[in-house]
Design goal:
about 170 residues, alpha+beta, three-stranded antiparallel beta sheet, 3 helices, globular
């Protein structure tokens, strides 16, 4: 058995998409977007989003075009956008589809149903959003959606889960 210092299936350096590499260096706090009720719940880990303050406040997110979350969001018109902490890495990976979750990712933590969708009880900073009609725009490999923030709660911010350059990072300050 040989142990490699590099991933054996990595795309060779010269063949990597430069814009995607640039985007990976921007980094950001990982959020979990959830929507639906009961067995019709769906969720997706999202790090490409922007919150704009104002009256009303708005959130813009880039969602995977074939995600169950996008379908559920368009059906219900509402979602919970929760900021994840360092303790939520396993939850983030399960909702990103990169870690197995026997029985589904909703079994990994406790949830409460809000009027906007399910919220992980471990997520103390979150917002309830309503999708803006006709806000869907195909952008690259993603779908850009816009929503109005109808409710926001800010809890303790011990250690946010930050994603940069393809991996989780712990902020130093």
């Amino acid at each position: 058995m040989t142990i490699h210092t590099e991933h054996p299936f990595d795309t060779p350096e010269g063949d990597r998409d430069q814009v995607r590499r640039l985007r990976g260096r921007i980094g950001g706090t990982v959020s979990l977007w959830t929507s639906g009720l009961g067995i019709e719940r769906a969720g997706l880990t999202v790090s490409s989003y922007l919150v704009a303050t104002g009256d009303p406040a708005r959130v813009v997110g880039l969602l995977h075009a074939e995600s169950d979350l996008l379908d559920r969001l368009e059906e219900t018109g509402t979602a919970v956008v929760a900021l994840l902490g360092a303790r939520d890495q396993r939850l983030a990976d399960a909702f990103a589809g990169v870690m197995p979750a026997p029985g589904g990712p909703f079994r990994l933590t406790e949830w409460e149903q809000t009027e906007w969708g399910p919220r992980a009880l471990s997520a103390t900073t979150w917002m309830g959003v309503r999708l803006d009609p006709a806000s869907r725009h195909d952008v690259g490999w993603s779908v850009l959606v816009e929503a109005t923030v109808e409710h926001a709660e800010v809890g303790d911010d011990e250690a946010p889960l930050v994603h940069r350059r393809g991996r989780y990072q712990r902020p130093t300050a």
